Amino acid sequence: MTSSVSTIDEYIDQFEGDKKTYLNQVRQLIAGVVPAETTETISYQMPTFRYNGNLIHFAMNKQHLGIYPGPDAIEHFAAELKDFKTSKGAIQIPIDQPLPEKIIRDIVAFNIEKLKDKQGPNWHKSRGNWLEAEELMQQIMLKTTLKKEFKWGSDIYTYKGKNVIGWGGFKNFFSLWFYNGVFLEDKENVLISASEGKTKALRQWRFQHVSEMDSTKIEAYIQESIRTIDEGKEIKPTKSEAVPPSGILLKALHSDQGFHDHFKALTPGKQKEYIQYIDEAKQEKTKLSRLEKIKPLITANKGLHDKYK
After folding, report:
1. Which of the residues 51, 69, 194, 220 has an alpha carbon 20 to 30 A from that of 291?
2. Nearest of 209, 216, 222 to residue 165 by alpha carbon
3. Does the structure show a pLDDT above 90 at 175?
4. Per-residue pLDDT, 237
């Protein structure tokens, strides 16, 4: 079947006979229980109902109907789904069996309850509207066994305790970052080092639009990243020389004994973070602004990035 359809009607019209009837039955069943503000769309090349996020997807396969309500719903209804083949994010319903209407209604109701108070993500307001890209990556991660952890203010996916992949949307691009990217073959010739001379192993893959994101290729890069960890490939951190405070930070430390004492009480690593933060600013007014920002953090004996840890 073609992946160029843009509406559920177009998707269903690709099929004939019993399969088309089955799909219409599923669509009508879901439409009959969702809130009025729910919308129908095509997402990941599948019919999708959206309500404060993706409520449920469905798709026709060769011998079964796939229902994709998310891992939480599948886990919650594990007992009711024992007669069906399931994975972390999918339910397979053989098309030669009657549609399990009650189970589907209950699953949709579960997701409605889960999503009803959800506020749409607001990070895209200042970083570009990358909601579809975010959802695509979440769908891809359902196919992996990576562990999701929260680090540095965002979700990072790990394997054997090692960082594998993270992502984020910005004003002009959506970026995947592969933490062992330097070891990847990079068959598509897409990986870049965002900070030459500073970034050693991490590499980024940037997209200007979600339509550029090929899930098959992204999955291949993820699997190769996992293999680099199994093979023990990593760049060992090297101990850099200590850089003493200078410029306006040094003046501030000399002029305020309390500020000086708090700064010296920090670990060498945290001191280095603050020194680099000031030194990296090119304009004097930016340095002064950053100094005022870090003073309360230092006085509170906090590191620059503690809130992300």
Report:
1. 194
2. 222
3. yes
4. 65
Residue 263 · residue 274 · CB < 8 Å: yes
pLDDT tens-digit map of 28-58: 999 999 998 899 988 877 899 999 888 999 9
Give pLDDT tens digits for 246-273. Answer: 999 999 999 989 889 889 999 888 898 8
Q: Hey, where are the domains in the chain? A: 8-115, 124-230, 247-308
Q: What is the DSSP letter of 240?
A: P
In the chain the first and final C-alpha atoms are separated, in Å, by: 46
Class level of CATH domain 124-230: alpha beta
pLDDT beyond 90 at 243: no
**Cβ(48)–Cβ(41) below 8 Å:** yes
Here the tokens at position 255 are: 């002029």
The pLDDT value recorded for residue 113 is 92
Q: Are 207 and 219 in contact (CB under 8 A)?
A: no
**The domain defined by 8-115 carries CATH number 3.40.640.10:** no
